[in-house]
Amino acid sequence: MAYYKYPAYLNPKDHPAFDAIAEPGSLTQNSGIYRCVTCGYECTSIEGAPLPPQYHHQHPADRQGPVRWRLVVCSAHHAH
Questions:
Q1: What confidence score (pLDDT) does residue 26 get?
Q2: Helix or strand holding residue 46 (H, E)
Q3: What is the number of structural domains in the chain?
Q4: Alpha carbon distance 46, 65 (integer Å)
Q5: What are φ and ψ of residue 33, in 5° steps?
Q6: What does DSSP say about strands 69-74 and 21-22: parallel, antiparallel, or unpaired?
Q7: pLDDT recorded at residue 37
Q8: How much is the pLDDT for 79?
Q9: Among 39, 59, 69, 80, which residue has the least CB neighbours within 10 Å?
Q10: pLDDT tens-digit series, residues 37-78
Q11: Residue 18 contacts by C-beta under 8 Å, 6 or more apart in sequence?
C-alpha cells in the first residue's frame, strides 16, 4: 500500500486510468506508482517507459497468477 504524509498534495480522482490493468513490460501510460494486482508489490514508472517486466519480481504463477500492474497514484502533471 502506498503511504503519504501530506494529504494536501493528494487529490482523489475518478478516472478510468486507475481501472486499467497493464501487462508487464508494456509502456507506462501515466507516471506514478503502480501495484501488482496479484501480490501487492509496488513500483514507480514514468510515462512512455516500460513497466517492470515479468521477471522484475517473482511470485509463483501456479499459486498467485501472473504479474499485472494497476496505477494507484498518478503524477498530477500527467493526469489526463
A1: 96
A2: none
A3: 1
A4: 25
A5: -100, 130
A6: antiparallel
A7: 93
A8: 47
A9: 80
A10: 988 999 999 999 999 987 777 776 567 788 899 999 999 764
A11: 70, 71, 72, 74
Query: Is there a domain that residue 24 lies in?
Result: yes
Query: Do the beta carbons of residue 70 and residue 21 sit within 8 Å?
Result: yes
Structural domain including 29 reads: 13-78
Question: Is there a contact between 37 and 10 (Cβ–Cβ < 8 Å)?
Answer: no
Cell numbers given for 11? 487529490
Considering the entire predicted model, what is its pTM? Answer: 0.85
Residue 5 lies in a domain: no
Residue keyed to cell 501488482: 36
- Cα torsion 25, 32, 4, 70: sign: negative
DSSP string, 48-79: TSBPPPGGGS---TTTT----EEEEEE-GGG-
Within a domain: 2: no
